[in-house]
Amino acid sequence: MKNYLKQFPNKDGYFGEYGGAFIPPQLEPHFLEIAEAYDRIAGDASYINELRYIRKHFQGRPTPISHARNLSRLIGGGNIYLKREDLNHSGAHKLNHCMGEALLAKHMGKKKLIAETGAGQHGVALATAAAYFDMQCEIHMGEVDIAKEHPNVVRMKLLGAEVVPVGFGGKTLKEAVDSAFMSYLEQGDDAIYAIGSVVGPHPFPKMVRAFQQIVGEEAREQIVEMTGHLPDHAVACVGGGSNAMGLFAGFIEDEAVALHGVEPLGRGTKLGEHAATMTYGKPGQIHGFKCIVLTDENGEPAPVHSIASGLDYPGVGPEHSYLHDIGRVSYGAATDQETLSAFWALSRHEGIIPALESSHAIAYALKLAKRSPGENILVNLSGRGDKDLDYVADNFGYGEELDLMKMLQSAEPEFA
Ligand SMILES: *Cc1c(COP(=O)(O)O)cnc(C)c1O
Fold first, then answer.
1. CATH for the stretch 60-91+213-409
2. Which of 382, 384, 389 to mutate to test the pocket of ligand 1 (most atoms within 8 A of CB)?
3. Among 36, 268, 380, 402, whose CB has the most other CB atoms within 10 angstroms?
4. How much is the average pLDDT of 9-34?
């Protein structure tokens, strides 16, 4: 995997057979404009320095790594370390790519940022970036998510963004993407569409990975400083796959580091009850790019479920699809129940309340730690759980010690 990051994607945005840009002809010039602008300024010293300044003085980077000492001791296997993206300004890793995208928009002379959001995290991060750069911001959000993620809706409005409710179809992330695309079609001259993950048409999977790569670069240095060597495992949850690609980018060229992506297995293996794309999907197309997709009997993107609305997407980044096929990353899954157990356990035993999205990675890492004595497991704690507090407490309560034990007794991590 030497030089992997330089070689992938190719100039047309392909990772093997996945990726590309399949968009309406009217949108083609806009995506070309973004790709060209990005290639032009990505190596530009003033752009790099500006981004570096923002990360340090606005976002609060570098974020630390914490040793989950109590949980590791309790499990009695491997040691778990957490890359603390929950401490990145606005509470998740998403600000990393939003600041990059907004800075790009500024350099392109655009006045507005348009995007979809699922859990509201991308919307909040983009609204934050828009406020920082004094730009307009339009966020499309499914009505189901608006009801579930009320505090993030309030945040976006406070930050000056316009929140557009999306009321068709499943009223979640997938429909929000469709709605945002339609709005961009009309405003492409003055706006850029800021995609919230390593998904969408070229150049977004490549660009968003580059903006998130800082997570892996920092983590690599920090874990070596803390433990004396590279980790045995790096684990991250996968919705579209941006926090995972950010972490993995720091280790992908080191074959000795096992990489694990964790998807939501929701309420079970039946179609519609989960969003475990890698395990149950097949190659196809969604939202303008090729990837592994969960489809229904008509070949349409399937309805999905996850307790974490940031993960309920029937597609996945093209790069993950490729890394899955070549076997460089193992993809597993965590159920809603396991996720809740991890959410409670990390809160109670480490004093860190994680996002439900991140709790999927924690759940998987806890099981991995149990069967990996003496090994070091680095987990991307992609976001904080403040947005999920009321939802969890009202619907599922506060958890019991038993929940963690039950989860640890259950089967070994499932691999795709
Ligand atoms: C959005 C979100 C995710 C999922 O997005 P990826 O692109 O897969 O990283 C994960 N964790 C948190 C906290 C999120 O907000």
1. 3.40.50.1100
2. 382
3. 380
4. 95
**Looking at ligand 1, which residue's alpha carbon is closest to its atom 15?**
121
> Does the annotation count 358 as an active-site position?
no
Record the pTM.
Answer: 0.95
CA distances to 1, 121, 151, 231 from 181, in Å: 35, 19, 25, 40
Class level of CATH domain 22-56+93-204: alpha beta
Domain regions of the chain by residue span: 22-56+93-204, 60-91+213-409
List, for residues 88-131, the tens digit of each pLDDT value.
999 999 999 999 999 999 999 999 999 999 888 899 999 999 99
Distance CA 92, CA 310 (A): 11
Element at 30 (helix H, strand E): helix 28-41
Contact 355, 87 (CB under 8 A): no
Q: How far is the CA of 358 from the centre of ligand 1 (A)?
A: 7
Catalytic residue chosen out of the listed positions 321, 347, 358, 382: 382
Q: Is 116 labeled as catalytic in the residue annotation? A: yes
Ligand 1: nearest atom to the Cα of 196: 7
